[in-house]
Amino acid sequence: MTTIPEVPATTDTDVHISRAFDAPRPLVWRFFMEPALLAQWFGPASVTVDPESVVIDPRTDGRWHLDMVDAASGDRFPLRATLTSVIEPEYLEGRIDGEQFGPEGGVTLRIWFHDHGEKTRVTLHQGPFAPEARAATASGWGESFEKIDALLAAGAA
């Protein structure tokens, strides 16, 4: 049996978000693990995700890849993660490549999915970030989660 880690202490280089979604845990999990759903919500309002770029291999040492596309310029921003732990539908962890994120040349993304009555509480912890990347990432996750809310309200999935 795999043990789900505790939420680590948050530092000034981390993003920490806790958010409830009005949907059962297996459905919320699908938004993170099914390419067609992930492409519909990931990223801030100013970007889209190229559905053809999404690759999810949901296992330890698997991939969680996508390309965000800036709506105004068309510039592409690839996100490449190696999954380090996948415990369906409770926990997802990956290491995201990219020197643009933080002082370590990449960041660790951890997401916990908890039953919360009729809802699902998602707890996200990501870091370490350089200060400017931390603020942009927190804002981007907030806008992304608003997209999930809208998709759930519209009956998507």
TrEMBL record:
It comes from the Bacteria. Residues 22-152 form the Activator of Hsp90 ATPase homologue 1/2-like C-terminal domain. CDD domains: SRPBCC_CalC_Aha1-like. It holds the Pfam family AHSA1. Belongs to the AHA1 family. This is SRPBCC domain-containing protein. It comes from Protaetiibacter mangrovi.
